[in-house]
Specification:
Layout: H1 3-27, H2 36-57, H3 66-73, H4 75-84, H5 89-109, H6 113-138, H7 144-170, H8 177-191, H9 202-213, H10 217-244, H11 247-258, H12 279-291, H13 299-320, H14 326-343, H15 348-360, H16 365-382, H17 397-419, H18 424-436, H19 452-464, E1 470-474, H20 477-482, E2 487-490, H21 491-498, E3 514-520, H22 536-539, H23 542-548, H24 550-570, E4 575-579, E5 583-588
Parallel strand pairs: 1-2, 1-3
Antiparallel strand pairs: 3-5, 4-5
């Protein structure tokens, strides 16, 4: 575990906490009756709205940076305060500025700045420990359920952190195609080159964290996925707890999802033509594909975050009615629903259905949410032709199954309490662990798209060579990593253009740049064998043909090696920048050197 990686993830985590918790906490006003969890949920939804709007609007005017991003947080509190104090605005503002100016003079004149900062830290420390003591006092240590819950929660947290952070700490490469798309769009937001007409959500969050933490978006995309997944796991537990009224069932939900209970690695080559399958075959295939890929903190999980927040806010409205926080909770519900519509509109169907059930029969709300999610996923899979442009929902299936299992645990608690009232929840926790412990632990196996050394060397080039003075010729994954630092050309395009011309001794590459050509001596294999069925549209896709297909990639890499070696024999200035057992990087310096 590298020190640099730990420092990087620390910066990213601090930026995330500041943007999504501390800033909203300072700027939003809450009534005394607002619970700690409600404050957390409100902070998340407010921060998400601000970050997404800033990420989609500011880059179009080249105004996206850490300062403008933070200023966006003040827009609503400023408008609210101004509307409330419009008549006394001039006198209040003058009094406030004079007081702050006098305080600053006092600190500077008497050299109290460091003392004031130290006192601030001491005060915050006291507040933290007083809150911690307050919650510890509430724990009934004489109750076996409390002791078991604490131990169970501690063990589950250990599993969650280990399983989610081990892969990104070991790998600089990203696990899915979606990750590279997110990285590329994050760079475009930061550089003001975004031209997407659709509202983009996850890249806006990654770009916001990157600019505040002053880290490369590659590092943010690499570590934010497990952070988002951990946040979602705890959000799921809190949602289940509040919908069922049992903390124990919330813990079971965290345990099921966080420890990858519903992840079973299988043969990914299973992929038949849906046109020739029966309904049961389609359902089996959907479950197999969804459960054989580890849950990943991408667009799907972000959409589910908004779904759970909407359900939480609506559940609060149903329970409290027109209370003190009615307007704020209603606004949060509407914002959450809007964000669901922007990320995955189909998830509005289970959201609205669950909201209706929570009004009529709250006790089955969790069951309806889980069943409606599973039904929606299977319906979309059965009718793929109609939903070809929709976010791939089948990978939400582990979340839906977790909700269904916790709904079953809810009814189990009801019945067990008739026989053993005091130990009902205790028995359910023991049963949940006993029936699933044989599936633990599972280390996720991501379907990477490149060698880790490829990503590492590209990032090294971006740090060692001047910006925009070099060109990377490599598979498509390097476009997102090198974006903003240098230029990129697709390896297949490069080979097709020059494989015959390099045989001429008089030929020279016309680029006024240093050229790095990435060639795999041992072509990277994404899956062990070609899928048994591949749609015709996929076969015609150049990315699949050149880089995803094992045969296509092997052929391209062999042609690339031949091209580079032919050119190298005729031009002694060509060097090998890096070489190991799997990768060779040719370096062609520009002519003016």
């Amino acid at each position: 575990m590298e020190i640099v990686s730990l420092l990087t993830i620390s910066c990213i985590l601090i930026a995330f906490v500041v943007l999504f918790f501390l800033l909203p906490q300072k700027l939003l006003s809450y009534s005394i009756e607002t619970s700690f969890i409600n404050k957390i949920f409100s902070n998340i939804i407010y921060a998400s709205l601000v970050v997404i709007l800033a990420g989609n609007l500011l880059p179009r005017f080249n105004l996206f940076n850490w300062l403008t991003l933070i200023l966006c947080y003040f827009i609503w509190p400023t408008l609210y305060w101004t509307g409330k104090n419009l008549k006394q605005l001039n006198s209040l503002l003058r009094t406030y500025l004079i007081n702050k100016y006098l305080q600053l003079l006092d600190l500077l004149e008497f050299d109290n700045l460091s003392k004031a900062f130290n006192q601030y830290l001491v005060d915050k420390k006291q507040i933290f420990f007083s809150l911690l003591k307050k919650y510890i006092i509430k724990i009934d240590f004489s109750n076996p359920l409390s002791i078991l819950s604490i131990v169970f929660f501690a063990i589950t947290i250990t599993f969650i952190v280990t399983l989610n952070l081990s892969q990104p700490l070991e790998n600089l490469r990203l696990p899915f195609t979606e990750s590279y798309q997110t990285l590329l769009q994050s760079w475009q937001i930061l550089l003001g080159t975004i031209n997407s007409k659709e509202i983009i959500l996850l890249p806006s969050i990654v770009a916001a964290i990157s600019t505040l933490a002053a880290t490369d978006p590659l590092q943010t995309a690499r570590f934010f996925s497990p952070i988002l997944l951990c946040l979602f796991t705890f959000l799921l537990g809190a949602t289940v707890w509040r919908m069922t009224g049992y903390k124990s069932i919330g813990l079971i939900a965290i345990y099921f999802l966080g420890t990858n209970i519903f992840y079973w690695p299988k043969d990914n080559s299973f992929n038949k033509n849906h046109l020739s399958e029966s309904l049961l075959d389609i359902i089996y295939s959907t479950f197999q594909q969804a459960l054989s890929q580890p849950l990943f903190g991408g667009e799907n999980v972000l959409a589910c975050v908004f779904l759970l927040l909407a359900i939480n806010f609506w559940n609060e409205l149903v329970k409290e009615g027109r209370g003190v926080n009615f307007k704020k909770t209603l606004a949060n519900t509407l914002i959450s629903l809007t964000l669901i519509g922007l990320s995955s509109p189909l998830l509005l169907l289970p959201a609205f259905l669950t909201m209706i059930v929570l009004v009529l029969l709250p006790s089955i709300g969790l069951l309806i949410l889980s069943v409606s999610l599973i039904t929606l996923i299977l319906f979309v899979e059965i009718n793929q032709a109609r939903f070809s442009t929709v976010l791939d929902l089948k990978f939400v299936l582990p979340i839906a199954i977790t909700l269904f299992c916790t709904a079953f645990c809810q009814f189990l608690v009801y019945y067990i309490k008739f026989m053993a009232n005091r130990y009902g929840e205790l028995i359910v926790i023991v049963l949940a662990v006993a029936t699933t412990v044989s599936f633990l632990p599972k280390q996720p196996r991501f379907q990477y798209l490149e060698y880790n050394i490829s990503a590492k060397k590209t990032l090294q080039i971006t740090q060692q060579f001047p910006k925009k003075q070099w060109l990377v010729v490599a598979p498509v994954e390097q476009l997102a990593i090198s974006y903003g630092y240098g230029w990129y050309e697709d390896l297949a395009t490069f080979v097709n253009k020059y494989q015959e011309e390099v045989k001429d001794a008089q030929f020279n590459f016309s680029y006024p740049l240093d050229i790095f050509i990435f060639v795999e001596k041992k072509p990277f294999v994404i899956f062990d064998q070609e899928p048994k069925y591949v749609p015709f549209s996929t076969l015609n896709d150049l990315t699949y043909k050149n880089y995803r297909s094992p045969a296509g990639r092997a052929s391209l890499e062999q042609q690339a090696i031949t091209l580079c070696e032919n050119y190298r024999q005729l031009h002694p200035e060509v060097k090998v920048y890096y070489e190991d057992d799997v990768l060779r990087i040719y370096f062609i310096p520009k002519k003016d050197r």
